[in-house]
Amino acid sequence: MSGPVRDPSPPLSPPQMDELTNHELRILRAYAEYGNQQLAADMLGIKLQTVKNAMGEVYSKLDVTNSIGAFKAMGWLQVPRW
Predict the structure, then answer these.
(1) What is the mean pLDDT of the chain?
(2) Cα separation, 71 vs 34, whole angstroms
(3) Does 37 reside within a domain?
(4) What is the pLDDT of residue 82?
(5) How many structural domains compose the chain?
(6) Residue 59: inside a domain, yes or no?
(7) If you average pLDDT over residues 9-38, what whole number do you get?
(8) Which of 13, 20, 45, 69 gives 20 to 30 Å between its CA and that of 53?
């Protein structure tokens, strides 16, 4: 029997906050708070496509492929290391 499963990915370095525009950061925060892109768009009073476009830019700038990666890169999601 083997020990606990370990996360093989290296810890992410803190993102360059100045790489994200205020617009992108506002949308990322709303997405994190409200849990989905449509609700984030509704709460910000913007179109869903605007959220999708901004999130694509965020993923590119943070070098991640999804929202979980973005939240983790921002330090908003703590995944325990075994």
Answers:
(1) 84
(2) 13
(3) yes
(4) 74
(5) 1
(6) yes
(7) 82
(8) 13
**CATH classification at residue 39:** 1.10.10.10
Query: From CA 35, how far away is CA 11, in angstroms rounded?
Result: 24
Q: Which domain holds residue 26?
A: 20-73
Main-chain phi, psi angles of 60, to 5 degrees: -65, -45
Q: CA nearest 77: which of 4, 5, 7, 3?
A: 7
**In the structure encoding, which two tokens stand for residue 61, read together?**
């700038």
Contact residues for 41 (Cβ-Cβ < 8 A; gap 6+): 47, 48, 50, 51
In a domain, 54, yes or no: yes
Is 33 a member of any domain? yes
Dihedral Cα 82, 63, 13, 10, nearest 10 deg: 30
Residues with Cβ within 8 Å of residue 81, at least 6 apart in sequence: 6, 7, 11
Closest of 15, 9, 53 to residue 31, by C-alpha:
53
| CB 75 within 8 Å of CB 14 | yes
